[in-house]
């Protein structure tokens, strides 16, 4: 361990899920009860330090990676990333939630719901892509937020990122069981589940098949990233063939009368469905975590991320149109809509093709999600916000075995108990929250660099960003409470003026070296507005669950995570001052990676390679 005794050579010899005491609490604060009590007394000061501290690009690229002992293997190119993107996204969302939302909230206008969600997702993809090219590490949005918004915000996001992956994987695994039941010609999608009558309705259908599927995915994910990529190719190709079949065969049975009542639930239904259907786009952020294993991030990541998202959005819209043309929206089955729709139009044999394709698609989603979530946890553990045992990379496979097994074990437990609708709403909240933070972080990255941005420009930027966020929140709250439009006459112009203020009054302090989001600040600002707006369509119970989870991770943070990450940061800072970062850090700086003079331990570092924009 870097911060807890034992050298890198010892780390190289260790394999699999072995562990020592220092793998979990190696920091000074946990070496004795006296140290821990003293650390708790210093909680307020340490918390302020972590709130104000921002990491540096070079810290994420060099120091954090070194804490895994072994390098992840660079085996992926843009072709791999496109297929990973398609495999990560096209799965349970389109094959299950389309029917659920078309029947209950949007009707045939569910296609518009997919357009709204797709635009929101695409804007987020742009933001992720710039970060992934500039900071190609396994931490994804966690690393990006550490650099721009600080340790504490990054930790809150990290907790929700892990929640997003666990409940997302659980939802897909349960959907896998539903389509497998259809493939076995069972009429009730709960036939292979165990009913526990003593449990609440949303948790009583126990799903052992979902657990078995997750165990199989775990074995594949720990063996090889490239091997997972090849399997994903095969599954995704089969999946694409099935999707083409659904669209062509389904449209031959189209009845335009089903589109007469296009939006039976009105605009509210369309946006309410959009918030839930955002679940169908979750997964592309997993591709950004593979930047550390990409051969040429500057070329491969933009093509892989943006390309896969555009293809996905088009496919979703075509599938939604096809489903609603085949059946009246009120007759759509909520659990296996496409299979039942083909049976309803006299093509019962086709439901087996659809079910098989859906299973292939969901298998890809589970596999790519397993790869992505483990890399998130690995990078979080590199900061010691969670035990560094999770950061270890196996020397032979080049994969984070400990993180993969742990995340999928948690996914299996949730999948065993929890119903799909509970999971989908909670997942959408976490995802929209994180995507909003990443868009804010991109604006901060472009317009604020300590030592470069003047105090006057900083104040103008903060004021405009506050207007953008507050007007977006006001719009979302108003939307959630009434169908009237009066307040939008105020909130929409305020958002526009806030964005215009940044564009006209604040010069960019940093320009991307390799690839940048176009139309800054407009696209990131629009991403913030849409994501926050969609949050207003999520049900109240899901916000309560989200609040409970946030409270749980905050308790953990103040008891363990804060003190572990504080000790690690201070130890790293001391080594840096003594020249302990070594030649690797100097090589990164010399190659043009922007670094901050004091990235850890203070919030006043500046980018060495940045000049003010005119």
Automatic annotation (TrEMBL):
Topology in the lipid bilayer: Multi-pass membrane protein
The keyword Transmembrane helix is assigned to this record: yes
Residue ranges, annotated region (Disordered): 595-614
Keywords for the protein's UniProt record, in alphabetical order: Amino-acid transport, Membrane, Transmembrane, Transmembrane helix, Transport
PANTHER family cross-referenced by the UniProt entry: CATIONIC AMINO ACID TRANSPORTER 1 (PTHR43243:SF1), INNER MEMBRANE TRANSPORTER YGJI-RELATED (PTHR43243)
Similarity remark: Belongs to the amino acid-polyamine-organocation (APC) superfamily. Cationic amino acid transporter (CAT) (TC 2.A.3.3) family.
Protein's name in the database: Cationic amino acid transporter 1-like
Upper classification of the organism: Eukaryota, Viridiplantae, Streptophyta, Embryophyta, Tracheophyta
